[in-house]
Design a protein that fits this description.
This protein is of the alpha/beta class and 298 residues long. The chain is 40% helix and 25% strand. It has a six-stranded parallel beta sheet, with helices on both faces. The two termini are 18 Å apart. The relative contact order is 0.16.
């Protein structure tokens, strides 16, 4: 397979810029053709210097460009405005905002279920870092309640993140239920202004339905899930736990960024962009194979 799928990034902020480097460095199946913003910015200028076509005229400029996949790195409201155009153009949207217009996806948990969807939502950075752990516990025990506390460096939270704080907590809580398998979910985000900036750290609390807890099965499931996440997020690790207190299970995770563009303390952004690129690669490979089949049938 020598072909590549043309893709675009919408939103030239920190997340969008990090996507540039990840796609250009690591992708086998995607060709980053276009980056779109609404005004000239450092992100667009950087993309242009890297040989990527740019537009500062908004989402309409994606029309007729042959784009097959678009990474939306704007905001929840931004994606709500962008999606009708992407859908009409037949472009697959990988949504890095908390807009939650498409099904919630964690690559290691449920991507296969939604691989043919036109709009894939990556929940939130906190969701990508914690929901796999809740899902791992749910695979071996019934989870009545799941709560996560995501603590990130204030410096790693740009305007888009700050504008979507409410959506973050609501979407992550729903993701804990829908993807993680908990009957009830809750999410809290803390922006820590400490200097030097802290790494992204997450606390995951679950309350199980059964008081008879299979500690070995839960521990094994969590460790296996963490290894899967680490395959596309090398800086992901279990910080502590699982800790058992009756039917409560507590786990801590840490995410160190890869340093492609963002500083390594911005693991919250890195896990989101890493998940997006991992999904984009799988979808792009699928599109290429489908094209080859059609060509062979002619």
């Amino acid at each position: 397979m020598n072909d590549r799928v043309d893709v675009a990034i919408i939103g030239p902020g920190n997340i969008g810029t990090d996507l540039i480097y990840k796609i250009q460095k690591r992708s086998k199946y995607m060709n980053l053709k276009l980056m779109i913003g609404i005004t000239i910015s450092k992100g667009l200028e950087r993309a242009e210097k890297l040989g990527i076509d740019i537009s500062s005229k908004g989402i309409d400029k994606i029309k007729g460009k042959g784009i097959k996949i678009a990474f939306d790195a704007t905001s929840a409201r931004g994606h709500e405005n962008n999606w009708p155009i992407l859908r009409k153009e037949g472009i697959i949207a990988i949504d890095l905002t908390p807009a939650a217009l498409g099904p919630f996806v964690c690559p290691v948990v449920n991507l296969e279920q939604y691989i043919n969807e036109q709009n894939i939502n990556l929940i939130t950075c906190g969701g990508q870092a914690t929901i796999p752990i809740v899902a791992a516990i749910s695979q071996v025990a019934k989870v009545n309640y799941g709560e996560i506390v995501a603590t990130i460096a204030s410096k790693s939270a740009g305007p888009g993140t700050r504008q979507s704080i409410d959506e973050f907590t609501q979407t992550t809580a729903r993701g804990i239920e829908i993807v993680g398998g908990a009957k009830k979910g809750k999410a809290i985000i803390i922006l820590n202004p400490a200097e030097p900036p802290i790494m992204m750290r997450n606390a995951i609390f679950t309350i199980l339905e059964d008081n008879k807890v299979d500690k070995k099965a839960i521990t094994k499931s969590i460790e296996e899930m963490a290894k899967k996440v680490k395959q596309y997020v090398p800086g992901y690790k279990i910080l502590f736990g699982p800790l058992f207190d009756g039917n409560m299970v507590t786990v801590g995770t840490e995410v160190k960024g890869a340093g492609d563009f963002l500083p390594d303390y911005a693991g919250n952004l890195d896990i989101e962009t890493s998940a997006a690129v991992a999904i984009g690669e799988i979808i792009a490979e699928k599109l290429i194979k489908e094209k080859e089949v059609r060509n062979n049938e002619k």
